[in-house]
Amino acid sequence: MPTKSALAQQLGVVAGFDNPQASLEQYRTPPELAAHLIHTADLQGDVQDRTVVDLGCGTGMLALGAALRAPTAVVGVDIDPAPLATARQNERKVGSTTSVSWVRADATRAPLCPPSDTTVVMNPPFGAQSGNEHADRSFLATAADIAAVSYSVHNEGSREFVESFASDNGGDVTHAFETEFELPRQFDFHEADKRHITAEVYRIVWA
Ligand SMILES: C[S@@+](CC[C@H](N)C(=O)[O-])C[C@H]1O[C@@H](n2cnc3c(N)ncnc32)[C@H](O)[C@@H]1O
């Protein structure tokens, strides 16, 4: 298996959002975090020979990371067509052997019926800026519906929420890790040039 740092380097060419929309919490997951998430999923046997669905794929960072690790198929779903166009260009730049199906759809009502051993990966909107706390709840609900296992990024302090959502919906949190990253200023309401984010990543096995 190639290394995590090699994957991060390959994902370094993935372009972010040209015109990010704050209401959709559009920011590109840093390549190092995407590589950590996908490499962990691969070590767990959740990528190779699996269908991988990226909910809220944006410009394709997580979907393309999975596509570089020999899955059966990869689907990237986003509600906004603009980043999907960038994702197609990113796919050519990354040069993955598995092609990705890019689908414009609401991930909270995804018109998908993938195979039963599907893995979902996602960095969904947190709802933190809009006051719509736990906007990630409806993304987790989709994962519970379509996935055997999911990997999801959440904001700091989500452990109780994620664990109780999982157990209420036939899931079990098997792995968790905390991560920190910096995001460049991209919305007018950001006061500093960079924002420091602490996030949490959860692996959930769904019944
Ligand atoms: C934090 S960004 C993550 C983007 C990308 N997955 C990445 O890792 O770089 C959240 C993404 O969710 C998308 N999104 C927000 N609400 C959505 C919805 N209801 N259905 C599908 N995508 C949605 C946004 O357009 C945005 O691309």
Describe this structure in words.
Helices cover 30% and strands 26% of the residues. By secondary structure, the protein is an alpha/beta fold. The longest helix is centred in the middle third of the chain and has 14 residues, at 81-94. The structure holds S-adenosylmethionine. Residues 24-29, 56-58, 61-62, 77-80, 83, 106-108, 123-125 line the site of S-adenosylmethionine (SAM).
Class inferred from helices and paired strands: alpha/beta
Mean pLDDT: 93
Helix amount: 25-40%
**Principal-axes shape call:** globular
Oligomer kind? single chain
The number of helical elements comes to 6
Sheet bearing the most strands, described?
7 strands, mixed
What name does CATH use for the topology? Rossmann fold
- The span between the termini is 28 Å
Rg, Å, rounded: 16 Å
Low-confidence regions: none
Q: Catalogue the ligands.
A: S-adenosylmethionine
Secondary structure: elements and pairs:
Blueprint: H1 4-11, H2 31-43, E1 51-55, H3 61-67, E2 73-78, H4 81-94, E3 100-104, E4 119-122, H5 136-146, E5 149-155, H6 159-168, E6 171-184, E7 194-206
Parallel strand pairs: 1-2, 1-4, 2-3, 4-5
Antiparallel strand pairs: 5-7, 6-7
Helix pairs in contact: 1-2, 2-3
The structure holds S-adenosylmethionine.
How would you sum up this structure in a few lines?
30% of the residues lie in helices and 26% in strands. With 207 residues, the chain is α/β, with parallel strands linked by helices. It is globular, with a radius of gyration of 16 Å.
